[in-house]
Amino acid sequence: MAILNILHYPDERLHTVAKPVTVFDEHLQQFVADMAETMYQAPGIGLAATQVNVHQRVVVIDLSESKDELLVLINPEIIEMDGQITYEEGCLSVPGIYEEVDRAERIKVRAQRVNGETFEFAADELLAVCIQHELDHLNGKVFIEKLSRLKFNRILQKLKKNQRKTL
Ligand code: GNR
Ligand code: NI
């Protein structure tokens, strides 16, 4: 097991569009285990492979208090969505920034397990928000890019200032 390095905005690599996973082998299993370990120790409720600079369509999520309900989504797709929810989001790639974002409230998801088996499920509320947030990462999008230009620019200035301080 290993803790992976998480990219921080505005790292250009966060804008890479991830490719579908085609090989379901032990290397994928090991990578998923490392992603889960990285998410738990961050700590976060979700992590997309893009955030650890691996541009494959892999997501891990765990919303449980006890951190023992790992959801692994390989090649996830949203096949239905409806409703609207406004939720205050954060992101491990944008530390210290929390902003309200509008998303679909209910979604249907099709994905594969780490063994390649396809499954479908419905999600709502925080799970729906988190899946949409992670799918955006796989498509090279970060949540602050969904905000107004004014808010986005303010956040970008703040991130750049913080980056200067930590150099
Ligand atoms: O840990 C996380 N919390 C969170 C809160 C509200 C909406 C989305 C998230 S996902 C985030 C972890 C992360 O950056 N995943 O990409
Ligand atoms: Ni994120």
Give a verbal description of the structure.
The protein has one domain: Peptide deformylase (Peptide Deformylase), CATH 3.90.45.10. Helix content is 29%, strand content 26%. The chain has 3 helices and 7 strands; from the N terminus they run αβββββββαα. It has a 5-stranded antiparallel β-sheet with strand order 1-2-3-6-7. A two-stranded antiparallel ribbon has the order 4-5. The radius of gyration is 16 Å and the shape is globular. The structure holds ligand GNR and nickel (II) ion. Ligand GNR binds at residues 44-48, 51, 89-93, 129-130, 133-134, 137.
Relative helix content: 25-40%
> Which CATH architecture would you pick?
Alpha-Beta Complex
User: Helix segment count?
Assistant: 3
Described by the principal axes of the CA atoms, the overall outline is: globular
Q: Return Rg in Å.
A: 16 Å
Strand order of the largest sheet: 1-2-3-6-7
What is the distance, rounded to the nearest whole angstrom, between the alpha carbons of the first and last residues?
A: 29 Å
CATH superfamily: Peptide deformylase
Low-confidence spans: pLDDT under 50, at least 5 residues?
A: none
H/E element order: HEEEEEEEHH
SS-derived structural category: alpha+beta
Could you say what the CATH topology is called?
Peptide Deformylase
* Count of spatially separate domains: 1
| Distinct bound molecules | ligand GNR, nickel (II) ion
Largest sheet: 5 strands, antiparallel
Percent in strands: 25-35%
Averaged pLDDT? 97
CATH class: Alpha Beta
Strands, total number: 7
